[in-house]
Amino acid sequence: VEGNVLENNWADGQVGYAIVLTPGNGTGSASAVVQEVTITNNIIRHTGAGVNILDYGWVVGNTRASRQTNRITIKNNLFQDVNANVWGGEGTFVKLTGTPQVTFDHNTVLQTGNITTAYGNANEQFQFTNNIVNHNQYGLMGAGQGGGNPTIAVFFPNGLIRRNVFIGAEAERYPGDNFFPPSLEGVKFADRARGDFRLAAASAYRARGTDGKDVGCDIAALNAALAETDRLPL
Q1: Distance between CA 175 and CA 171 in Å, rounded?
Q2: Residue 28 pLDDT > 60, yes or no?
Q3: Which residues pair with 73 in a beta bridge?
Q4: Do the beta carbons of residue 198 and residue 219 sit within 8 Å?
Q5: Cα separation of 78 and 176, whole Å?
Q6: Are 145 and 139 spatial neighbours (Cβ–Cβ below 8 Å)?
Q7: How far, CA to CA in Å, does 184 sit from each of 56, 98, 123?
Q8: 55 three-state secondary structure
Q9: First-last CA distance in the chain
Q10: Contact, 2 vs 41, CB < 8 A?
């Protein structure tokens, strides 16, 4: 899924997630599956929440009516105005349960709610790297756990969580190899007011990713994938 602008999604008959990945098979034959999905170089904006990933579909009797969702990659996207106050919903970046091999890498996310809302089973081989994201009140949050390291231990065991800019987070609540500016202004975008989300020359997060690139979305690569009329100002 590449080169799209997904926008203007509000809570109504659902809770406002712009992207929902879930298998659905009401027959009980367990043949449906969502797997090997890559979502990259998209703008997702003006929405009540970001991404919702469900491990299994409906349960028929005691039988799971699908196979387990797996191998989901969300990479180099701009999530802008993920805002429960305006669009309803939860304002969460990602809600998920029991899904192995989920990767979030090089996304820039401006949201009003949690970074994660995790519940149910653990998410094995979870990777969260090189993202810029608002922490807000709870940050990486899972049901029945405190935000940050307690949630990581239960819901993202042995996960790879590195070189993220957690805006407004307390460093002691997270793995060490991340960044913790106190405010959005501390990230130093080139011109956020005009929609230019490249990092300015003065930003401390240029060339600080695990791959030696700038943390957050590569806006030049994003623009190259978009139609000319959808591109961000640079």
Answers
A1: 8
A2: no
A3: 38, 103
A4: yes
A5: 25
A6: no
A7: 36, 31, 29
A8: coil
A9: 23
A10: yes
* Residues sharing a CB contact under 8 Å with residue 107, sequence separation 6 or more, in sequence order: 74, 75, 76, 77, 78, 79, 131, 132, 133, 216, 217
Q: Report how far Cα 88 is from the mean position of its chain's Cα atoms.
A: 18
Say what the pLDDT of residue 234 is: 85
E strand residue ranges, the chain: 5-9, 17-21, 35-40, 43-47, 49-54, 59-60, 63-64, 70-75, 78-82, 94-97, 102-105, 108-111, 116-118, 127-129, 132-134, 140-142, 160-162, 165-167, 189-191, 196-199
Q: Are 85 and 127 in contact (CB under 8 A)?
A: no
pLDDT tens digits, one per residue of 42-84: 999 999 999 999 998 766 665 666 889 999 999 999 999 999 9
| Rounded Cα distance, 5 and 43, in Å | 5
- Find all residues with CB under 8 Å of 105, minimum gap 6, and list them: 73, 74, 75, 76, 127, 128, 129, 130, 131
What average pLDDT score do residues 90-97 get? 97
Mean pLDDT, residues 4-15 taken together: 94
Average pLDDT, the chain: 94
The pLDDT tens digits of the residues spanning 191-229 come to 999 999 999 999 999 999 999 999 999 999 999 999 999
Q: What is the pTM of this model?
A: 0.95
